[in-house]
Amino acid sequence: MSEPSVELLEGRSFDVLIVGAGANGSATAEALARAGYLVLLVDKSDFGSGTTSRSSRMLHCGFRSLEGAAGKSLWQHLTQLPDRLKLLKSAREQLAARADFASVMPARVRPVTIAIPLFRGSVGGWQIDMAAVLLSLLGTGGFPLDYRRLKAHELADLPFADWLRQRQDFTGAVTFCDYVFDWPERICVDQAMAAEQLGACVRNYTAVETMFQSSDGGWTVALRDEIDGTKATVAVRLVLNLAGPWIDKVTQTASSTAPQRIAASKGVQIAVALPERFQDHGLVAATDKGAFVCIPSQGLHLIGATNSKFTGDPSDAVATEDEIENLLARTNALLPGAGLGRADVRYAIAGVRPGSRGSPGRVIHDHAADGLPGLVSVTGGTVATSRQTAQSLRRLVARRFKASRPAKGERLDLLDPKRGAADAPRFAVEHARTIADVVFRRGGEAWTTHFDAQMLQATADALGRSNGWDPARTDQAIAAFRAELDKYYRRDLGSAPSEPSEISRSTACPS
Ligand SMILES: Cc1cc2nc3c(=O)[nH]c(=O)nc-3n(C[C@H](O)[C@H](O)[C@H](O)COP(=O)(O)OP(=O)(O)OC[C@H]3O[C@@H](n4cnc5c(N)ncnc54)[C@H](O)[C@@H]3O)c2cc1C
């Protein structure tokens, strides 16, 4: 079953065009479709394949927001009150996002125990205790922090304790319950499919090429199918530019002189297999080379992320050997017991953070100020805050015009993704067009350790049957997938089946 041609959209009109089906675009498409708006959601690649698929997968509980306030005197807090209030606001937002995801999508997030080691001379435990009290006062929405402060001799149950550096400086640790997404790109597929069920028109591999202001104040937008090259032009009242780190590029399709809004930074992470006792446990620490985060994800641990200024096309961001070695060195400096080497790295990924220029947080930009009324973009929006961003944008749209149709009911049931090639017909329903679409974003098996050459062949055959490919076309798809794996994941699948992963999952710190 192949995808309907983009040409079928020629001449159609929509209330809102959403550019980009990452965490922010897909959540906003669902929210607006539910509110009765006629939505067109397009992504130049697959749903969730952009920065969202490169995140550290953390649904932070707010400690990070309060980090900036740690170690300061009461006087400093009072003199910097506006900044402190911003930190509190951000922490409250993160707590609300954590509770929202955990209650609305319990199958897509899971609790893990995060440890922050304490060393003599660094941030004191009492300061983190204060932050924990503050977070509890702000409200955890029924998903407690399970905060504990442990002395050095009480760490027997903490898997990272044996591996930590400077044992003599090690004064203890704090632990708390945080949530991880494990698989944020599947959330994007879920939300895009929910938007479609609610009446939105949803297309992957469809790029916005150019946008022209129409005489009625709306936009005429030229779209291109990135796989077969076909084109269409649509009319929309409002464009929401949610293209992550590509936001400036999208705005420039409307005006080459529009000011840049993105402050891009590149982040690289490596994935390693740690012993089973580390599953459901993560570690966060400050190092002299920046924040160190080690988070369980799909049977592996993601370690990172680097943080370097990025210019250029975010699609070209890849993990270099130097960056991989740097992360290994950083890990071994903090956790000498891990003794990690290059051969332990199962894959390495790079992403570009779509930070806001001149501001640390999320900013909604109304481009009317740039002479582009009816164009709105969002910078600095994370996966964690994406559902709140969607609600802010729904309110923004509602202030401008009414929905074409009545609002719909509550959230539809989440689709139940099945892993493996046997579910290929279902993948076709979910608009999967390449092998990577199936194994990374519909079934997710490529993120795990047991994905191997045999599974790749079976997936390619099933997708080929579903799309009517001949054997040569299937081989071509396999070669393209292997090249993508090599470039963007620094991973070689080899030709033999892999050993099944021995790491099993269990739930930590249930609330
Ligand atoms: C290393 C790293 C670690 C991170 N860790 C976390 C974390 O732990 N927790 C967290 O919440 N956030 C984290 N983030 C931030 C988070 O990943 C991003 O802020 C978030 O994914 C942005 O989502 P988005 O939907 O705005 O953008 P994206 O996911 O990038 O989606 C934008 C989409 O727009 C599409 N697009 C671009 N141009 C066009 C066009 N012309 N036409 C059509 N479509 C187009 C792209 O294909 C893409 O799919 C991290 C980011 C990085 C890089």
UniProtKB/TrEMBL annotation:
Protein name (Swiss-Prot/TrEMBL): FAD dependent oxidoreductase
Gene source species: Aminobacter aminovorans (Chelatobacter heintzii)
Family stated for the protein in its record: Belongs to the FAD-dependent glycerol-3-phosphate dehydrogenase family.
SUPFAM superfamilies per UniProt: FAD-linked reductases, C-terminal domain, FAD/NAD(P)-binding domain
Coiled-coil regions listed in the entry: none
InterPro entries tied to this protein: DAO_C_sf, FAD-dep_OxRdtase, FAD/NAD-bd_sf, G3P_DH_FAD-dep
Region described as Disordered: 492-511
Keyword Oxidoreductase tagged: yes
Compositionally biased intervals (Polar residues): 501-511
Keywords from the named record: FAD, Flavoprotein, Oxidoreductase, Plasmid
GO molecular function: glycerol-3-phosphate dehydrogenase (quinone) activity
Membrane as UniProt keyword: no
GO biological process: glycerol-3-phosphate metabolic process
Cofactor: FAD
Domain FAD dependent oxidoreductase: 15-380
Pfam family of the protein (one): DAO
